[in-house]
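Example record used in the benchmark description.
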Amino acid sequence: MTEKIKKKSNLIIAISDAHFGHESCLYETYWHTIEKLCDEIETLENRYEWNKVFLCVVGDVVSGTQIYRNQYLESHVQKNEDVISFGSYLLHRTIKMIEETVGNPIQVFIVVGTHEGLMRAIPHNFAIGIARRLSAYNYSVRYASKYFILNLASGFDLEKFQILFYHGYGGADYSSASPSLIRELTTVHSQLSTQRGLIIQRFCVGHSHWLEIGRAVLGIRYDCLGGFMRWDKKISNRESGVLYYTYTEDGDFDVKGVSGLKFQIEESAQQGLHSLNMRYVAQQLQDAYEFEIECGILHSEQEDEK
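Model output (structure tokens):
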């Protein structure tokens, strides 16, 4: 029996809006979704040999920057180095799970979100802090700023297939992207094409916490990432989840969503979610500090006493 030849393929994983540290963060939903993602990647390995693997974190890893009134009252983590340690440690756990699944180190890109400094001038950009901390953990990480363009055909002798990752902004009750965001995406698409000769085949955005694939509007096509936070202020059917793209050596493109809706419904209905999250944050922060001591980033109290 002849062994089936696998195609080489690039794998691009995109996540956003984890909001680690917020009192209404859906941690169980997040980890179940990442486990489901890894299971799907293992299944894909029956057909594909990974050429390059990228993880794009499309903003709002943490609820850092004050965006709305009294937001600070809804955070279980102080808006200082604790936010960076907490968010970086949970991303470390995420990256480790993906790397163990694909069997190789991956390249990570961090795009800034609204709750990390996108929409206002602040002295501390939490996305930069998280990117630097992950680099100190010895991961291959790049801070990708506001817009990040990735060629999915990287490493293949093919024409470029480019996706622009952008966190996004604005609110819309009946669409995964606000009218103001759609206007910005169409403007960026036109300017890159006419002024720099860059053709963007697709956009990937976050912010609205609304998992959706392949929405076409005004000559562009975008995918939207799901978030991981319970909407306490209104009823919403917005679906948690992540996306992944594959692009093969033959130029075959595909995009899939990994939904966390089943877990999202169950966890959102839990009584005392805020109290459960408070205990979870305390334990994970302790684990983060111990990990950073092992990495030589922090010093233990015993070392400080010497």
